[in-house]
Design a protein that fits this description.
Shape: globular
Strand order of the largest sheet: 3-2-1-4-5
Number of strands: 5
Helix content: 55-70%
Length: 338
């Protein structure tokens, strides 16, 4: 059986495989259980294997590559246009098999296990921070019901949380309230410890990664942003320019909206980190206008949030240049003097 191209529709348990020969004739069309996939592909001579870049795709790409096959990952939205009939697993596998051979197809670089592990640190930290925010909001709301309104900021919340933990102040609170809010305070303390441990782990990876250290030199890109970009972008040469990189993140007005709900395409996590960092740059520019004259010119004409997105876009351009061409960030006045 001469197989030139295989399309694999990934799943949790049942995988669909579609293979064709060099003439485009279908020679494989079958389902495989998870434990059968590697054994089946190991018996096939080296060929081109296409997969959608979805959950578990990078793991399977690494495993199948070890068998000698050339594996290509594709964005699912790019494969969708090749589905010829009603959507099902067999049709998806056939579409993947055809799409992977198209010369105009764009592929997703395969991430290493270390890159995925570092991204898991980021995702877990982000999850815990969102949970912490939920607990803080709940604590503020419950205290407000009894007239205990916390001041803005973490110090104001800590002062109100002390009312719950301090035995001298607990007598004025109903017992059921004390029991409920103590659980929230304990959970907040546990989350602080876990987030701190993740931060230390991310900082350790940052210090050991040259690209991450160089990205940190860009104003607005801290350790979290630098490590996230370095671990997400496997090969910066896949982007032709900084504009392509910014568009991939979703910092240009390309939309995928429906029902009146606006939805930007791209990596939402990287976009959020860059916009948060850009907001800090805008605030710094207001305090030191001589350092960022172009930001001040934008602020004179545009709202601050829009300016922050523009600054984030510029940060993405600079980050791509550092990753693709090497070097460190140079401030404009230093660059002009060089």
């Amino acid at each position: 059986m001469q197989v030139s191209t295989i399309g694999v529709d990934l799943a949790k348990n049942v995988f669909q495989v579609h293979g064709v020969d060099s003439a485009g004739k279908v020679v494989i069309s079958r389902q495989l259980r998870r434990k059968q996939v590697i054994d089946f592909l190991s018996k096939i001579p080296a060929c081109l294997v296409g997969m959608e870049a979805c959950g578990t795709a990078h793991h399977w790409a690494r495993e199948v590559s070890k068998l000698g096959h050339t594996v290509r990952l594709m964005p699912p939205s790019y494969v969708k246009g090749y589905v010829k009939r009603s959507k099902n697993d067999a049709a998806d596998a056939a579409a993947i098999c055809e799409a992977v051979t198209r010369p105009s197809m764009r592929f997703v670089p395969i991430k290493s296990a270390d890159q995925q592990a570092l991204l898991m640190l980021h995702r877990t930290r982000d999850l815990l921070i969102r949970q912490r925010t939920q607990l803080i909001n709940a604590l503020r709301a419950h205290l407000a019901e009894f007239g205990l309104v916390a001041e803005t900021g973490r110090e104001g919340l800590a002062h109100r949380a002390a009312i719950i933990t301090d035995e001298r102040n607990r007598e004025a609170l109903p017992s059921a309230m004390k029991q409920a809010l103590q659980a929230i305070v304990d959970q907040l303390a546990a989350l602080e410890l876990r987030v701190g441990a993740l931060d230390r782990a991310i900082h350790a990876h940052h210090r050991a990664n040259d690209m991450s250290c160089r990205l940190e030199t860009v104003p607005g890109i801290g350790v979290i942003g630098a490590t996230a970009i370095a671990s997400t972008v496997t090969d910066p040469s896949t982007f032709k320019s900084g504009r392509d990189f910014a568009a991939w993140i979703g910092l240009v007005p390309r939309q995928h909206s429906t029902g009146g709900k606006e939805r930007l395409e791209g990596d939402r996590y990287l976009r959020r980190l860059l916009v948060i960092g850009a907001t800090a740059v805008v605030q710094h520019a207001r305090r030191h206008p001589q350092k960022y004259p172009w930001v001040m010119r934008l602020l004179a004409k545009k709202p601050a949030k829009l300016v922050a997105v523009a600054v984030a876009n510029k940060m993405a351009h600079i980050a791509w240049a550092i990753m693709a061409k090497g070097g460190h960030y140079r401030a404009p006045e230093l660059a002009a003097a060089a």
